[in-house]
Specification:
The chain folds into 2 domains: 237 residues, Rossmann fold, CATH 3.40.50; 31 residues, no CATH class. 43% of the residues lie in helices and 15% in strands. It has 10 helices and 8 strands. An 8-stranded mixed β-sheet has the order 3-2-1-4-5-6-7-8, sandwiched between helices. Bound molecules: nicotinamide-adenine-dinucleotide. The site of nicotinamide-adenine-dinucleotide has 27 residues, from α1.
Length: 283
Amino acid sequence: MSSPVAIVTGASSGIGLAITMHLLSRGFRVVMADVNAADGTRISAELGESTKFIQTNVAVYADQAVLFREAFKWGGNRLDFLAANAGIDDRQSLYEEDSEESEDGTPKELSLLTLRVNLDAVFQGIWLFKHYVRKNAIPGGKIVITSSAAGFYPMSSNPQYTASKHGLIGLTRAAGLHQPLISENITVNCICPTFVHTNLCPPHIRDKFPQEHVTPMSTVLKAVDLFLDSSASGETVELSLGQLHYRKVPPYLDDNTRWLGQEAAKLWEEGYEQPPQLKEQAV
Ligand SMILES: NC(=O)c1ccc[n+]([C@@H]2O[C@H](COP(=O)([O-])OP(=O)(O)OC[C@H]3O[C@@H](n4cnc5c(N)ncnc54)[C@H](O)[C@@H]3O)[C@@H](O)[C@H]2O)c1
């Protein structure tokens, strides 16, 4: 039987590169996706034939569509794992003072690139992943999303980063606990690292972090293994130093919120079985 196939986004550096090397050590073939083609191409050549680099801007749907199509083909009509990992910090400050003006004197639109890379692209990744893993000889596959501790705590300097990482936890819980997806053997989980030494943090900030607050890459890889080696879905783990901590959905506040969260789900399901009204609302 052929060896399993993974796609890792953001694979040219940091956590994505570490996950790539770890998957190789576990017998995977890995498609490395990244906007950074110079490093990606070089590293893939060094790692050998069990890798293939595909230059991909995850924020561009057409790029991801080609990535998944080519990965599935390269894998011999096989795809088993997605590490939806590419991420960036805020590229324009929400708090900017002298924001540029358009010709009509209104402020120019804020760039929401960080939301597109960190959050929108992961939706598209799940969308594409399920399409291909349904075609596997044994249908199904596993997704591990890289969220962040900023998915739980506010990082005021980076509101887009914070919102996107909170969003990824919501996405994991919604999609990962979706019973029809689970019954197709498609799992979605997420890892939430605290500070790890990578190129994400500008060096002049990174170098000020005391060593006792740096989470080692081995903890990240332990979390990836946790989800690779189980059928869990919808789970979120926070990674702090050497430890993995399960972060559960908060308990319902009272019977009202429990009813709305659990029982009303049936009403939503029934409602979505009536597509005409929903389609009318679509824009
Ligand atoms: N390093 C940390 O402390 C830390 C903590 C929590 C979460 N994370 C998350 O881990 C993930 C990986 O980050 P990292 O720390 O390894 O940083 P990194 O900067 O070392 O690596 C990120 C990689 O993503 C790539 N990338 C950026 N935009 C892309 C795009 N549009 N399409 C494809 N690739 C793109 C970059 O080229 C780079 O190779 C990110 O989602 C980040 O938010 C990192």
